[in-house]
Design a protein that fits this description.
The protein has 404 residues and is an alpha/beta fold. The chain is built from 19 helices and 13 strands. The strands form 2 sheets. Strands 9-10-8-7-11-12-13 form a 7-stranded parallel beta sheet, with helices on both faces. The protein has a 6-stranded parallel beta sheet with strand order 3-2-1-4-5-6, with helices on both faces. Helix 1 runs antiparallel to helix 2 and helix 12 packs across helix 17. The radius of gyration is 22 Å and the shape is globular. It starts with a helix and ends with a helix.
């Protein structure tokens, strides 16, 4: 545990210094566990790394609040913070997560009256798990082969963490096996359940102006691009425009802070540009830069085809569940480690296409140029990713563990 705390101190110091230099006092106080609770009451501390994990847990969060439970939701990113605050949920407070060291963690537990902890997917933080006074649950737990190798260096600490868990529903069978190998008690092993399969589209739709500007069959989305992927996407768009001159691209960077650099790249490629953040008119432009927070569902709704990014680099790929929920035909790159089981199901159902470069993306866009082809592939993806596990049973297990 001493080595872990030393490493955490070194890693956290850089971020805390950056926040301090930027004058971001609110974030700094949250990361140090210095934000006081507005009132004294017992709370469940629910943690999600970022937007995708948080959105996938919304059905669970809604059910917990319906049960009358008070929540403290923590996240790792500013975008997820904005998303959770935007929900304005009852009996719920939202903060950036504290650094996983004894001082910040124990201050949060003490100040906010934490009685239980729920964490999502792969974001298991040893200090807060071990310090939580009540039950600890992991939902959609994911442990890749690469992460498991890293855990080997901290085997005694990991064994303590596994012993503390009261319930873990793994995202896939391989993760379930790895958690068990690290000592997860048999009694804590829940059903295989991928929370992202619970995703349902928000009720708000794109505005009439947006729907008028983007014909779905002639619009494709590059969702959550990272550095190194935008140039490939833009090259694919340029190639396809030669044969489909009316094709529109909605380019949504994973991190909007990259928007200026991406905008410059679009102009360098000789493409006309409109930006969401500045209120530009999207009509007639070849690329619409979706550089805002919390609006990805609008772009899925407008796009007949979605390229799921994070898959052309070594990021492991992003969720296919969200575009599938909108019936958008799915393209992706070769790196899908974060959702291997889901992409395998899509591959077996011929419900997605792997595109490793600009040429293959362009070829897929040419093959999926009709609304009929896009709808058929999008519906196939929706069916392939249908959740087989029972949500009601999952909530029963969660409630039972929390009440133990």
């Amino acid at each position: 545990m001493l080595l872990y705390r030393l490493l955490m101190t070194l890693l956290a110091s850089r971020e805390l210094m950056t926040r301090a230099i930027a004058g971001d006092r609110d974030a700094l106080r949250a990361r140090l566990g210095l934000v006081p609770a507005p009132e004294k009451q017992d709370r469940i501390w629910l943690h999600a790394a970022s937007n995708g994990e948080l959105a996938s847990a919304r059905p669970v969060i809604d059910r917990l609040t319906t049960q009358g439970r008070s929540l403290l939701i923590t996240v790792n990113t500013d975008s997820a913070l904005a998303l959770a605050k935007g929900w304005a949920l009852p009996n719920t407070h939202v903060l950036l997560a504290p650094v996983d060291l004894p001082g910040p963690t124990r201050r949060v537990i003490r100040n906010w009256g934490v009685t239980a902890h729920i964490t999502l997917e792969s974001d298991l933080w040893p200090q807060r798990i071990l310090d939580t006074p009540g039950p600890v649950l992991v939902l959609g737990g994911r442990l890749t082969e690469r992460s498991a190798k890293g855990w080997q260096r901290f085997k005694p600490m990991v064994a303590r963490v596994m012993g503390k868990l009261g319930f873990l529903s793994a995202q896939d069978p391989d993760s379930a096996r790895r958690f068990a190998q690290f000592g997860l008690p048999t009694g804590a092993q829940g059903p295989i359940f991928d929370l992202k399969a619970l995703y349902t589209p928000p009720t708000d739709s794109p505005s009439d102006d947006l729907q008028a500007a983007f014909a779905r069959a002639d619009t494709w989305l590059a969702a959550s691009t990272h550095e190194g992927e935008d140039a490939i996407v833009l090259q694919a768009h340029l190639q396809t425009l030669k044969q489909r001159p009316d094709l529109r691209l909605i380019l949504a960077p994973r991190h909007p802070k990259r928007a200026d650099a991406v905008a410059a790249m679009i102009v360098e490629h000789g493409l006309s540009l409109a930006r969401r953040s500045t209120g530009d008119d999207p009509n007639g432009t070849q690329v619409y830069l979706a550089d805002t927070f919390g609006e990805m569902h609008l772009w899925y709704a407008l796009a007949g085809v979605t390229f799921v990014a994070g898959s052309l680099t070594d990021r492991g790929g992003h969720t296919p569940y969200e575009p599938a929920a909108f019936g958008s035909a799915i393209l992706h790159g070769p790196d899908t480690a974060n959702f291997r089981a889901a992409y395998q199901r899509l591959e077996h159902a011929n419900a997605a296409r792997m595109c490793p470069d600009a040429d293959s993306i362009s070829a897929a866009l040419m093959q999926l140029k009709t609304a009929q082809d896009q709808v058929a592939m999008g519906q196939a993806a929706k069916q392939a990713l249908r959740q087989e596990a029972d949500f009601e049973q999952l909530m029963h297990d969660i409630t039972k563990t929390l009440n133990a």
